[in-house]
Design brief:
Strand content: 15-25%
Number of strands: 10
Structural class: alpha+beta
Strand order of the largest sheet: 2-1-5-4-3
Radius of gyration: 28 Å
Helix content: 40-55%
Shape: elongated
Oligomer: single chain
Length: 301
């Protein structure tokens, strides 16, 4: 076999050679991307083999483009009597996954950074000595939380604790949270930082898009599991699941600025400790929540 042809046959990049308006040769990689039989393609008109208007334009005019062929993302480049095709599907998926991870991390870091900025404003206002000490102590807490996020900590199990321990911290970052009702008798063992991040997102959504009263509550749907829910009295939604997809937003979010990552981040965090995130319809209102490992304590009757 001609050494050039042997190299083309083994190449992961698709190669199509032309003789005027007809295909002279295409290698196995190109045949897979074009979904055609290489033996039958030789000698056929280029339009029959390429079957994509952009590829035909490249063939006739040269240049490069990225397009979708049979569900694959393909980079195409025309050079003289040759067309080169490179499958970039996995590369694109990797880039997308990395970008989503970056956005998730930015969303997670937003909370402690916002807390630090608010506390800096307190210090800049010239507070009384005791208030200044308290602000510094809270800044240390937020800085330590940032460090745990950087080091990937926070998902480990902890001794059982009650959800209402997070109430002061939540009210400090979300003044509207002072109107919340709390019914949280079940202890949990998931880390405080990730649970706080979940609770912050759920409460912020309920205050922004739902209707009062808004309640934070726990229930025990199964042995060893606690459901942590934020309930509001808004109109029941038609589709909950799509709101957990990155960028997915409800009809009530129209015109409201935001990344659309809040509930996707909630699901990501919940799955990190082995739980799940969900939304469900109530008789009057909506409940958004997560399942959390239970500590020893009360159970639903």
């Amino acid at each position: 076999m001609n050494p050039w042809r042997a190299a083309w046959e083994a190449s992961e990049e698709g190669v199509v050679l032309f003789d005027g308006e007809r295909v002279r040769y295409l290698n196995p990689a190109a045949a897979r991307l074009l979904d055609t039989d290489p033996e039958r393609a030789a000698g056929r008109p280029a339009a029959f083999v390429l079957r994509h208007h952009r590829l035909l334009e490249l063939r006739r005019g040269g240049g490069a483009a990225t397009l979708t062929l049979h569900g694959r993302r393909v980079a195409a480049r025309a050079l003289g009597e040759a067309l080169f095709l490179r499958d970039e599907t996995e590369t694109a998926r990797t880039r997308e996954a990395l970008e989503q991870e970056r956005r998730f991390l930015a969303h997670e870091f937003r909370t402690p950074v916002a807390g630090l900025l608010a506390l800096l404003e307190v210090l800049e206002s010239g507070p009384a000595p005791e208030e200044g000490k308290r602000a510094l102590a809270l800044m240390r807490e937020e800085a330590e939380r940032l460090l745990r996020l950087v080091e990937g900590q926070g998902q480990a199990r902890t001794p059982p604790w009650r959800l209402d321990e997070l109430r002061p911290r939540l009210e400090r970052l979300l003044p509207g949270a002072r109107t919340l009702r709390w019914s949280t008798p079940h202890p949990v063992t998931a880390g405080r930082d990730p649970v706080f991040q979940v609770l912050l997102n759920l409460v912020e959504n309920a205050l922004r898009y739902g209707k009062p009263p808004v309640e934070v509550r726990t229930r025990a749907p199964a042995p060893g599991v606690v459901a942590v829910e934020v309930v509001d009295a808004g109109e029941p939604l038609a589709d909950y699941e799509r709101l957990f997809v990155p960028g997915g937003r409800g009809v009530h979010a129209a015109g409201v600025r935001g990344s659309g990552l809040g509930l996707a981040l909630v699901r990501r965090i919940a799955r990190g400790w082995g739980g799940e995130a969900y939304g469900r319809r109530l008789e009057e209102g909506n409940a958004f929540g997560v399942t959390v490992p239970e500590g020893e304590g009360e159970e639903d009757a």
